[in-house]
Structures are given as structure tokens and as C-alpha cells.
Amino acid sequence: MAASVTVIGIDPGSQCTGWGIVREASGVLTLVNCGAIRPKGADFAARLGDLYRQLADVVRAHTPDEAAVEDVHAAQNVATALKLGQARGVVVAACAAHGVPVIDYRPSVIKKALVGTGRAEKEQVGYMVGQVLGVRPDWKLDTGDALAAAICHLNQRRLTRLAGLA
């Protein structure tokens, strides 16, 4: 078993992608860094390219061991769902290109792991992330969701180890 593991949690979006790096060492979770990417570009393809470049920079800077990525959930309409899916694909590609394994989590699973209900609001998730990491949440809601994904994954890893499945 590794002495520590670093996970990047990512909440993909075509307009704002939240990311958060959490490290677990000896059962203690620590916030390493977090932020939000608001891709720029003249058109959607250019924004996806910018999202890739910015996220790749984050991955290179922090060298996470694994990535926990929020899966696509129900969107307002088909066009929104397609754009979200494309942004998520860019996120997965940026991680994979840097050798970071990607684990997918449904939003309801992440929310339930942090708040106790799969229908929690973003504000509730952000509050619980702050409680778990011992910090005051002053980040964007998408960043809180990304940190929640990382925490959810680290908890899942711990449970898998305890159950003797890993």
C-alpha cells in the first residue's frame, strides 16, 4: 500500500470545469489545491481545446495518481447533454494522455458519500467538503463538486482496502 495517494476530482462542464486535488496520507485527507477552468475561445471547439490545455497543465503540475470524474447526468436538453459529454471526453482525454487512470462516479453517488443523500444541493456538498477537509469553503460550486468527487473516490478506495478487495 502506498504511503499516500493523490486524487484529482473533476466536475466537467463546457462553460466551467471544477477541479480539486486531495491527498490521503495515513487516513488523513488534505486539500492540495483547487480551482475552476472557464475555457476561452471563438467557438465551442476552441473552448474544448482550451479546456484540454488548462486541465493538462493542472495534471502536469500536481501529478495525481488517479482521477475521479463526475459522470454525465440528466441535462436540461439534448444539446446541453451533448456539450457536457464532449467536455467530459476532453477531461478524460487530458487525464489519460498523462497516464492518470480515470474512475467515473454518478453525481448522486458523490452526493450520498458526502452528504448522506443523492439529492443534495451544491451548497450542501460544498459545506461538507469543507468539514471533511477542515477548510472554509470559498470556492466555486463546481470546485466543491470536484473536491467531493475526489473525497468520494478516496473513501471508496479505503472501503475497498478494508473489505480486502484490493
CA gyration radius, whole angstroms: 15 Å
Which residues sit in consecutive blocks of at least 5 with pLDDT less than 50? none
The CATH architecture is: 2-Layer Sandwich
Q: Tell me the β content.
A: 15-25%
* Amount of helix: 40-55%
> Based on helices, strands and strand pairing, what is the structural class?
alpha/beta
Oligomer: single chain
CATH uppermost class: Alpha Beta
* Overall domain count: 1
CATH topology: Nucleotidyltransferase, domain 5
Number of helices: 5
Largest sheet entry: 5 strands, mixed
Order of helices and strands: EEEHEHEHHH
Detail the topology: elements first, then pairings:
Blueprint: E1 4-11, E2 17-25, E3 28-37, H1 44-62, E4 66-70, H2 78-97, E5 102-105, H3 107-115, H4 122-133, H5 141-162
